């Protein structure tokens, strides 16, 4: 508990003498220091980043073996949705925003009383997750597209779908952190591994993937373009709803903590 308190004390952002741009940079730097400086946080909320990069590299290195396995199946496999599902699952295991509010602990008031707008505080945290997940998603998507020989338009569809999901997941995790805070946790392990916010950020997002898969199946019964358009619509709606709610309700939820 002492170690947790000492780490939390470092959340004194000292923003008063900085410009708005400088304040956001200071907050972003603080988020980065906490994420990479807390092993429990990094390995539990960042393992999906490693999985994304590993999946991309493995698809290139093991390309011939993977193609051989697919031929052994005896029928064409839906590689594009399978690739999207793998990337989406990896993103679900990156609930970086979900515990970020609770990790402030009893020193959250310092952050809340800073001169920067509350909405900006929340979006800096969301932006930090996107700063990590979006590049990894693009790298994994491009590697997989090259490995399986996807046409350019299919590679674009894969990136659009997964990037939309990444944005929605980051905003959703932030909402869960605001709705289910755990500011009195005795250590970061409780916040990161056992909090309701983290659990929902992971498994509710997986449920969204399941819904998208269901729409893909239904769409495949009509036309190929429908099978691709419906899941993208699900991810776009997921991202839009989470962004709107976080923008409108996020500041008031933060003030109530």
TrEMBL record:
Keywords noted in UniProt: Membrane, Transmembrane, Transmembrane helix
A Pfam family this chain is assigned to: ABC_tran_2
Membrane-traversing stretches: 41-62, 82-101, 122-150, 156-178, 199-219, 225-247
InterPro entries on file: ABC_tran_2 (IPR031599)
Keyword Oxidoreductase found: no
The keyword tRNA processing is assigned to this record: no
Protein name, entry field: ABC transporter permease
Organism lineage: Bacteria, Bacillati, Bacillota, Clostridia, Lachnospirales
